[in-house]
Amino acid sequence: xxxxxxxxxxxxxxxxxxxxxxxxxxxxxxxxxxxxxxxxxxxxxxxxxxxxxxxxxxxxxxxxxxxxxxxxxxxxxxxxxxxxxxxxxxxxxxxxxxxxxxxxxxxxxxxxxxxxxxxxxxxxxxxxxxxxxxxxxxxxxxxxxxxxxxxxxxxxxxxxxxxxxxxxxxxxxxxxxxxxxxxxxxxxxxxxxxxxxxxxxxxxxxxxxxxxxxxxxxxxxxxxxxxxxxxxxxxxxxxxxxxxxxxxxxxxxxxxxxxxxxxxxxxxxxxxxxxxxxxxxxxxxxxxxxxxxxxxxxxxxxxxxxxxxxxxxxxxxxxxxxxxxxxxxxxxxxxxxxxxxxxxxxxxxxxxxxxxxxxxxxxxxxxxxxxxxxxxxxxxxxxxxxxxxxxxxxxxxxxxxxxxxxxxxxxxxxxxxxxxxxxxxxxxxxxxxxxxxxxxxxxxxxxxxxxxxxxxxxxxxxxxxxxxxxxxxxxxxxxxxxxxxxxxxxxxxxxxxxxxxxxxxxxxxxxxxxxxxxxxxxxxxxxxxxxxxxxxxxxxxxxxxxxxxxxxxxxxxxxxxxxxxxxxxxxxxxxxxxxxxxxxxxxxxxxxxxxxxxxxxxxxxxxxxxxxxxxxxxxxxxxxxxxxxxxxxxxxxxxxxxxxxxxxxxxxxxxxxxxxxxxxxxxxxxxxxxxxxxxxxxxxxxxxxxxxxxxxxxxxxxxxxxxxxxxxx
Length: 713
Fold this sequence. Notes:
Elements: E1 7-15, E2 20-27, E3 33-38, E4 44-51, H1 60-67, H2 80-87, E5 92-93, E6 96-97, E7 101-108, H3 111-126, H4 134-140, E8 143-145, E9 154-156, H5 158-166, H6 170-182, H7 204-214, E10 220-226, H8 230-241, E11 263-271, E12 281-291, H9 295-310, H10 315-322, E13 328-332, E14 338-348, H11 353-370, H12 374-390, H13 397-411, H14 422-430, H15 436-446, E15 451-460, H16 462-480, H17 483-501, H18 506-509, E16 529-534, E17 537-542, E18 550-557, H19 566-575, H20 586-596, E19 600-608, E20 615-625, H21 630-642, H22 649-669, H23 671-680, H24 685-694, H25 696-707, H26 709-712
Parallel strand pairs: 3-10, 11-15
Antiparallel strand pairs: 1-2, 2-3, 4-7, 4-10, 5-7, 6-7, 8-9, 12-14, 12-15, 13-14, 16-17, 18-20, 19-20
Helix pairs in contact: 1-7, 3-8, 9-10, 9-12, 9-14, 10-11, 11-15, 12-20, 19-24, 20-21, 22-23, 22-25, 23-24, 24-25
């Protein structure tokens, strides 16, 4: 492959870790970078990303992401995005706002469909109709809502309401406060999604300025993946990029200056005015340990975060729970270009802050002095290697690779660092036999002043004061309006309501690209497979590229169980692997599992048969491993299948508490899904059992067991 028309080929290389050949181009006029990962994958992926750097918490990047997908110069329906969901064969269709970038990935296996998707997205980001239709901003962002002159004025808008929901999640609040104080001088101190109390500060003019500044080819990273024709893809890009000239855009993100001494902060966070605050405080210990462009540091921090804070045998996690500092422990994840490591202690008390900090310091010092168990490091590195090789699932691989390459685009001149991991993993593996990991802990976590000890005190009704201030502000605003201005505001809402209820015309609908039946292959793809029969069992081995990972599943029929049994079946699924077995305690079991495999998993599968009438339910054990560890993996699987112990009530209670917290968070963050499952249970046997296994019913029964644990354990 050479230069092609107005694209200059900058680099070509083989990326064996992801079974692809990389071609990096630069558009000569705009200097936009285009990365093509060429391979034999039928599932083609496109994405365009822009560095979008918020200077406040008005959610401008998030509102823009929503708005550009509400019609464009070429595609004039009100919601091209939703029209595509209904009419496309897409395997992935989304838009994602990150703290420092906005991404628009799409994927399809059908060549014509893929080209249609690419065109709709390119026209959306470069030619959005929001410049002409202010109602899109009012709808997606915020507006003053008043239907009649006698009504009170309120705020309303899609993102405004979405973020009100998001801020009901404790994790949104934790990370909001954490990065506000750990990276106070950077864009990461702001909420890119938008804080509901700040969103109404965004003006339409500032909103358009944001698009004009950042949504330019010179500030973009463009990506293609799969077996599509490179020249055709570049030709398609030219139709849009050639309209622009190069523009220098200030979108660099400065690194946060390290602290001279560790920072300690206590803040309040809102809980319902009717909730009791006892035992609902949160404690956080977090440190900056490097930059994401250093892939080795990123890998080492991931490994150590698992070993210290998050896995079932994690040293700090175990001590925090043993000494009753909290009921639940999570690790802190990295953020943007900075690598952040740390631990979150939930359901705690701010009075424990000193004890919390002292315990972490003490345990880290012991680890540095006595060393980390080599098997734990090895098993955790194995787990990371499986994650990197799998890259999600087959239909999302190309999207995952895009997100990884976008990291390199954002923060460095290299586009492959995150896609070439074998050498770095090999180096990390060699370092296990040295004191490198202990030295990393000593330097980056113990003797590093670039860290934050954050306490969040649960305060009932904290937001009532803010909400009352908002009401008073809106009241004063209404009083400041003349009769004419008030009527204009009522008319604005009527106009918006009409805009939202308008049906697309036939001419508008015809702008959305569709497929003919002739564009769709009626024949299902025949995946080559090898069939073997051993005794009474049939083994099917599909011929797919799996990075030399072997997968297997065992299915157990559940047809003889009644509805009331499914809570216990689901609880059993959640329990297995977290408890002691005949030959291992639960910590050693975790380590041995990942020494021998990429994980052993349990789940309940509920599927309707082809006629949609009969329900098939199975209890599944599955594992993934490589050839050299297969025999050891089978031995560990036997522990899961035959040797689980149920005697340790304290461990059982701890597992239940963690499950309860996990479900509480999931319900707050995705309540619509739980509500949908519960409502579907009125007329679907499958939904009834889903509710019992993983829905509201499961959560209620978990709470019930914990409320009377000694009697029901």
